[in-house]
Amino acid sequence: QSTVQSYLEGVGVGLEQLRSAAQEVQSVCQDLGAARWALLDSADHCQGLQRMRALMAEHVQLASVVQVLPQLFSVQEVFSHTLQLLRGQQLLEAHVELMMMEHLRDDILSQLHLRGLSSAQATVLSYFGGLQELNESLAKQLWDIVGSSLRLVREDPVLFVTAVRIIEREEKIDNTLLLEATFLPPGRPKGWRQKFYHVLQETITGSLFHAAHVDAEGPGLARHLAALQKDIVSQLRVVKDLMVQCVPAHYNILNVCAATYHQTLSSHLQDILRENLDKQGLFLLLEWALHVYHSPEMMGHPDLLPEVDISSLGPLMSPELVDQTERKYVVKVKASVLEWMQRTLEVEFKEWFREEEPETDHQGFFQSALPVIVMQMLNENIQVASLITDSLQQKVYNMALEELEAFLGRLRDALVHCGKEHQKDRALPKYYTSYLLAMLNNNLALSSSVSSLHPDAARRQVPASLQAALDRTQKKACQLLLEELLLDLQPLCLQLPSHKWLSGSQLVSSMCEVIDRYTKDFSHVRKPIFTVLLMESELLVTSQYLRALMQKKMVCKSEEERGQLCHRLLQDATQLRELFCGLGLDQSQQSLEAIFALRELICLKDPALLSLEVLGFITKYPDISDEHISTLLDLRGDVSKDVRHMVLEMMVQHPQVLPQGYRPIFSTILVPVPELPFCLRKGKCA
User: Fold this and answer.
1) Is 206 inside any structural domain?
2) What do you get for the CA distance between the two ends of the chain, in Å?
3) What are phi and psi for residue 261, nearest 5 degrees?
4) E strand or H helix at 75, and its extent?
5) Closest by CA position to 95, among listed 186, 149, 172, 177
6) How far does Cα 454 stand from its chain's mean position?
């Protein structure tokens, strides 16, 4: 009962609170309704307040403008005074007034900016429109002064210092405004210090490098480079001794000027290189850029050291440009060398047809001026190139070897042409043999001199291709001489073999006289070539002798004739051997042994033993063919078909290989083709 009673009391209290809250809510609703009607009644009054606020803002703007009107009205008067100061070159005073007016303008604009009165800024700026004209007028005078700085620091440094002071003032103002960064006035930053450097660099560029067209020829270019050298050193000395004292240290004016000269000069040289310079001009430019420029006569001048450090500026010409220029130079030198060599060859060719022998040296060897002229020309060009760089010297050296190789090819062509002219008329040239011998000595002189061209004494080897060209030239001259010898030997060789020859004619003696006459001429060549000519002559005589025997002009009809033939072969071979031994050719270097061996084949009494004898013969002379052997068997006149077949079969079973270094004898001898038997009975044609 007590619990229920407690619950009922609680419910009663809750109901009472709800009744009180409902009454309060109703009261609030009534108050809100009243407030709503009051706000609706005051809307018209708010519109009036907005119009009043706009009028008040306009009044504030007008009040601000009115406050500065006295100062604005005085601006034009200050402008006129400042302009007069500028015209009188009173630059510092004019700049002070200019800064004052700029400060006034900037202050007014800043206040208007902070108050958000942007509409009034245009009005204020209209009063300061003359500031732009004053700035331009002052700047023009400053840049004129900077443009004449190299002269003014010598004649009137005060004016130049004044210009620098004004520039520094403006630079300080620029830096201050940039740091604040709240409001940047019109025309800021001016950047006059940067403009100072720009004008100074343009002045340097214009005074030295914007001159008239540079003469691409050597003398004109040399004068131009000499003038640049003199002017640059002179102007840098003025900068170092005078201008440095007129500007703040942080301007680093000497290094700035040195870098400007360096960069502009580098561009100027590239412009010159675009011209079609001759080889002298290219050489001058390379020498000047790589040697003179860094020398004590220019950037390394004692008056400029140590303040001017040219090594910090880099090369005046890049390695790529140097290489390109060197290649151009080599092309020009190559054209010049080619022209000189061609002219030398033409003169040499004309001398071959002279009516007198070639000149001789103190040892009696024939020679001409050709090797001296050629080697002197090549050596001089290589030595001149060494004055520039090692790379240029190597390029010219490689070019010289290429041109020498090409020259040897043209020399061989000239020898061939001369030989053809001689074949038409052997009386022309009169001293044909002598000039061929002189050419062999010249070729030997060239061969011994080529190695001295190499810049590196430790690597003085003749390149393989050039050595091959020298060898081909020597071979061609020797070939022409041997052809001349052959023309005199052939009429004699045509007379053997014959019965008159077998009976003891003086045919080989006549051949020896011809050989002896030629070897006397050969004595006018130096020993290495003399030995070569002697060996080739001996091989030629042997070959012609054997060729004559194999022309099938004679067949031994009896053992007595074979004996006469063997005796004649022995006498001829012995006489020829003694001749060549007497001329200085060792018996081991002779090929006449082939005649002695051939004689053994002829002298063999028993034909059945021919197989064994022929085997020994082909082993010693592996270039002999079965046609040669068959012809020799025919010459014997007593070899049966069976023996011949056995000999030839033996040769098939024993093929020979030419050993290395073997001098062919029989491979150059052609055997006449045997006549085929005509099997049909002869009869009249239908």
Assistant:
1) no
2) 178
3) -60, -45
4) helix 75-87
5) 172
6) 19
Query: Structure tokens of 686?
Result: 């239908």
| Cα-only R_g, the chain | 56
Q: State pLDDT tens for residues 185-204.
A: 777 788 999 999 999 999 88
| Residue 505 sits in the same domain as residue 433 | no
Give residue-wise pLDDT tens across range 612-628: 999 999 999 999 999 99
Contact of 629 with 651, CB cutoff 8 Å: yes
**What is the separation of C-alpha 423 from the centre of its chain, rounded to a whole number of angstroms?**
46
> Which residues are registered as beta bridge partners of 503?
none
* Those residues with Cβ within 8 angstroms of residue 182's Cβ, 6 or more apart along the chain or in another chain: 110
In the block, residue with structure tokens 């850029």: 289
Look at residues 266, 290, 314 and tell me which one is the last residue of a structural domain.
Answer: 314
Tell which of 425, 449, 478 closes a domain: 478
Burial readout 514-541 (b: 16 or more C-beta within 10 A, e: otherwise): bbeebbebbebbbeebbbbbbbbbbbbb
Give dist(CA 434, CA 357) in Å, integer: 7
8-state DSSP, 217: S
How far apart are alpha carbons 486 and 493 in whole angstroms? Answer: 10
Q: Give the separation between CA 404 and CA 385, rounded to whole angstroms.
A: 17
Question: Domain limits at 302?
Answer: 212-314
pLDDT of residue 245 exceeding 50:
yes
Do residues 26 and 156 share a domain? yes
Helices 75-87, 91-114: crossing angle, 10 deg rounding: 150
Whether the CB-CB separation of 493 and 545 falls below 8 Å is answered with yes
Looking at the structure, tell me whether residues 297 and 442 fall in a common domain: no
**Residue 305, φ and ψ in degrees, nearest 5:** -85, 150
Q: How many domains does the chain divide into? A: 4
Q: Are 546 and 623 in contact (CB under 8 A)?
A: no
Q: Which of 553, 646, 633, 638 is nearest to 598 (CA)?
A: 633
The HSE-up count of residue 224 (CA atoms within 13 Å, CB side) is 21
Q: What is the DSSP letter of 584?
A: T
Q: What are the φ and ψ backbone dihedral angles of 67, each rounded to 5 degrees? A: -65, -35
Residues 624-645: b if buried by 16+ CB within 10 A, e if exposed: bebbbbbbbbbbbbebeeebbe
Q: Are residues 537 and 419 in the same domain?
A: no
Q: What is the pLDDT of residues 381-400, one digit of tens each?
A: 999 999 999 999 999 999 99
